[in-house]
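Okay, can you check this protein?
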Amino acid sequence: MATDLAVIGAGTAGCALAAGLRLRGWSGSITLLEIGRGPGGRTATRRSRSDPSFVLNHGAPLFNISASPEPRLLEPLRQGGWIALFNGALASLDGEGRIGAAQPDPLSSGALWQGAPQMDGLCRGLLALAKQHGPTNLQSGTLVRALEPRSDGRGWKLYGSEGQPLLECSWLVLSGTLLAHPRCQTVFGWPDVPLQQAATELGEPQLCAAATALSQIESTASSNLLLSLSEAGAAAWRLQPWRLLQFTPAAQERWGIRRVSLQAMPAGRWGVVVESSAAFAERHLQVYGSRSSAAQVLGAAPQPQAEAQVIEALDRALQDALNLSTAGSERQLMRWGAAFPKPPGPAAELTLCPDSHIGFCGDAIAGLGFGRVEGAMRSAEALAERLVPLLDAAA
């Protein structure tokens, strides 16, 4: 199978790149390869095939746009009904357990938005925009394990977990850092870092510099507890005067929680997503949720006892902090290993390597909105702007 452009990762950055290229008039073929069950990345919505009323935004309950001009893609998403203003109340919890006004926070400053009707509406909308103007294909549940430069130096071959050929492309974009970062070795036991190996093989200076910069990104993790409460069990939670609760530094130190979001679910159920503090996640860095992509696709070894202990620790901390019961709830753990990149991130000039036919985008790229959905969108739009003339020239 061949495509003009392959994009690894169908989170916000990958989907925004596809849509951004279309808005700039490029109509070549695009294939997005995504390890998860659908688009979204950290803006995905968790669903259950066996339980239609289970719908939970488990990575990001909202996203914010902190500066003008806003990303160009925001307006067509608004017009298409794929996003809507976040209308939930924000509050904070201090170290004594007192609820107060929301605090200044990079994740909730400026205009607050959410996907419609769920968070994955953001990426689904971006893909819908892309499909309107050219062939756009999403291959979900697909792990790219190896990258091989084509012998003519004008494209790439992609291989799966068993070394099987997946795709050939004229241009390649990595919208995340898994294939570029040593964590793929430490966490999943891979013998090499795929991008670093490919860069060494090619020997192209700009690609080598980009691979090095991406490999040096530092980030903090987040261990997220997902709770699903029945209509009866959610009565007290439904009465809370907030939908997003920030924990102050003192509260984070005391309870190991960074923030909590409440989400209405179908059939009267409610969801609660508990995001751990960075310190808590660091202490449990090797513990994955058994339903996560890391466990189901990447082959991370299951640790049922350790997982149960992390779930129990977060659940106890939540009940202690808010004096609310979680009795009878369904509980899951989702761990984001590179949830929040640390600045400054690779410079923008390293995001496109014309001689190697490869580019990079995502929230870990230096620039406005760094570390957030906004940064993922802006980096994708900036790469699309630079990439279109090269794609047109190759047509």
